[in-house]
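Anyone opening a protein record will find just a pair of labelled lines. The record below illustrates this layout.
***
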Amino acid sequence: MTAPSNPPSPLPLPPVSEPFRLPFHYGALHQIGVDWLVAPGPVRELLAKHHPDLTAASFEDGRALVSVDYQLYFAQYAFGGGVTQEIEFNVVAFPSGTEGRLPRLSYAQYAQGWDQTKLLGIARVHVVCDNPFAIRAGRELYAEPKYPGRFEVDLPSLNGPAGETWSVRCAAAAIGADGTLEQDLGPLVGLTAELDGLVPAVANSAPVTGYGTDLEGRLLAGPMNVYQPYRWYDLAAPAHAGRARLAVHAPESDLGRDVLALVGDATAAAGAWSYQSPPVAAHNRPYYVPTALRP
C-alpha cells in the first residue's frame, strides 16, 4: 500500500485561555448517569443541529443512545476550593468517517468499557451548571453548551442514611452583573435512580471522550480520566423498569424540548452508572477523657 501523496497536515491544539490550566484536576467526584436506548431519527436530527461532524452510535435494533448524568465535584485552586454541580444531556456518538475503526458492540458491552478506541464519546447537547467559573471554563476550553442552574440533591453518602438512591432536581438560574449565580428561574428536570439491592458490574469506562463543537464549527474532543472503575447497573429487565426516572418540568425550554423529543415520557432506562470518590480522611467519634476533678 502506498502512502497518500498529500497527507493531511497536523492540526494545532485548541488554545487555553487565561486563567485556566490544563489538565483540570478534580479533588473529588460523585456522579450518576442514566442511559436510554431510543429511536435514531430524532437523535440524528439533533446531532446535525449541534454537532454536524458527529454520527450517532448504533446499538440493539439500530437504536441510538442518550444519557443524562449529574456530577458533584470539588477542585482545589491557588485561591482555595470550589464545589460544582452540573447535569448533562448527551448523545453517544463518534466522528463521522471513523466507522471502520469501531468495534461492533451491544449497549451492555459499551457501558462496561469495551470500546478501547474511545471514539464512542458523549456529544454534549445541554449542560446546566451552578458554578459561573466552571461555566466559563466549559465554554472556552471544551466548547460545552453550558448555562447556569441550581440543584437540590439527595445522594448516597457515608455521612448520611444508608442506601443507593440518587435524586437530583435541577432549576434554571441566571448569572448576575457581579458574576455570581442569581435566583432560581423555575424547575427544569429531575433525575431519580433507585439502585438499592442491585449488584453492579465493574465498568472500565474511562477515559471518557467528551465532544464539543466551537463557534467556528470545529469539532473538539476532550478525554476525561477517572482513576477508579465505574459501577454499571443493568436496568434492561422488566422488573427494573421503574428504578430510573426522568421528569421534565419545563417542556418549553430547550433542554425540556430535546429530552422529550428523544426520550419521551415513558421510555424505560437501559442502564445506570455511578462513581463516588473514596474518602481521604475520617474525623472519628469523640470519647470522654477522665480527669482528676471529674472521675
